[in-house]
Amino acid sequence: MRRVTALIVAAGRGSRFGGPLPKQYALLGGQPVLRRTIAVFRTAPEIDRVLVVIAPGDAPHYEAATAGLGLPNPILGGASRQQSVLHGLEALAATPPDLVAIHDAARPFVRPADIEACLAAASSEGVDGAVLGIPLADTLKRVGDGNAVTATVPRQGLWRAQTPQVFRFGPLLAAHRAAASLGAVETTALTDDAAVAERAGLKVVMVAGSEDNRKITTVEDLGTMHMETRTALGFDVHGFAPGNAVMLGGVAVPHSQALAGHSDADVTLHALTDAVLGTIGAGDIGKHFPPSDPQWRGASSDRFLRHAVDLVTARGGRVVHLDVTIVCEAPKVGPHRAAMVNSIARIAGVSADRVSVKATTTEGLGFTGRREGIAAQAIATVELPGS
Q1: Cα–chain center distance at 287
Q2: Is the preceding peptide bond at 164 cis, omega within 30 degrees of 0?
Q3: Which of 24, 45, 212, 215 is deepest in the core (most CB within 10 A)?
Q4: 222, 244, 269 — which closes off a domain?
């Protein structure tokens, strides 16, 4: 199975942006642009690692924007985009991927399907890389002194390059190392990785992308997003099995038994995962993490909830509130409630005041009343861009 790393370039200063923060850390619909960009790549099926390149001095901004995502330490960029990408590639060289997808942090609207199309094209026989882009549709004019039109430029065969730009790792690293020996002026002229690859004689193909994959350049590009509110329910049940603790909300709660299940059987996180998935019509937890798949045996359920939240973020949305009710006779939830709230907030990437954990019993009735297991019911509230 091929290994694919996404290298997110977030080292630029964005001099045209004009906001109080670099554009990759500005808020878009309540979340940092960088966090939204990362979320898209985390939901792309073939991406198995995400690494971010940041500017020296941006560590506090980066940590705030990526809190709870569990990413590796960022790589410090250089004086130019080419140098920043090279720093990122060198950091990957010890355990090199087969393909590397290089993407601008300021393009948070890229579609997972377009990422997959680039990966497929870059994997084609005889191809070294693939670039997402748009064929030019407008008439082009060359302008001289006094803004006088001097010529009409044929647009046939001209494209606007976007990112991601996907390459076989070895050839691209070699191309960037060769480019690093150029003078500062020449290096600055290499405005994207395709230009570096072209200079090295690599074969790069274009892949048709989407106009939605726009790059944020000014504060006005953030726009005013119309958001709609959605809610959905989640419900889950697990029976007891031999053990000495149950997982509830990512917290190991001591008990005379454990919960039975293919993963860690965290009934609370499972109910929350289904609720979040429901807000975007993405099916249920079994669709994304089939119990028949051995890789999820004993898996920590925080991965399931994080995945669901990332799907919402990739759609341009955000989690507003998570509410879950745990139904059981024992163990007592109260002593562990605060720990559960903090755990769920960390996993979902929200503040603790956006999480509610409650508990109740069925007064001795039903399977929970007979102490045969635990049930959980959850409600998720999210905001998504409206149509």
Answers
A1: 19
A2: yes
A3: 24
A4: 222
215 and 231: one domain? no
User: Which tens digits make up the pLDDT trace of 216-247?
Assistant: 888 877 765 567 899 999 999 999 999 999 99
Rounded to whole angstroms, the Cα distance separating 4 from 200 reads: 22
Contact (CB, 8 A) for 77 and 8: no
Tell me which residue of 112, 28, 114 sits closest to 383, measured CA to CA: 28
Task: List Cα–Cα distances, 172 to 27, 56, 59, 82, 264, in angstroms.
Answer: 33, 24, 27, 11, 41
Evaluate the omega torsion of the peptide bond into residue 331 and state whether it is cis, within 30 degrees of 0.
Answer: yes
Spatial distance between the Cα atoms of 375 and 7, rounded to a whole number of angstroms: 41
Encoded amino acid at 115, one letter: I
Same domain, 253 and 218: no
Which structural domain range is residue 64 located in?
Answer: 4-222
pLDDT tens for 94-120 read: 999 999 999 999 999 898 889 999 999
8 Å CB contact between 75 and 88: yes
Q: What does pTM read for this prediction? A: 0.68
101 and 243 in a common domain: no
Distance CA(102)–CA(259), nearest Å, equals: 42
CA distances (Å), 227 to each of 323, 328, 384, 387, in order?
21, 37, 5, 9
* Count of residues in the chain: 387
Which of 384, 382, 28, 109 is CA-nearest to residue 227? 384
Three-class secondary structure of residue 318 per DSSP: strand
Domain co-membership, 244 together with 344: yes
C-alpha–C-alpha distance, residues 91 and 84, integer Å: 11
3-state secondary structure (DSSP) of residue 105: coil
187: phi then psi, degrees, rounded to nearest 5: -65, -40
Total domains in the chain come to: 2
Q: Clarify whether residues 329 and 297 are in a common domain.
A: yes
**What CATH number should be reported for the domain holding residue 261?**
3.30.1330.50
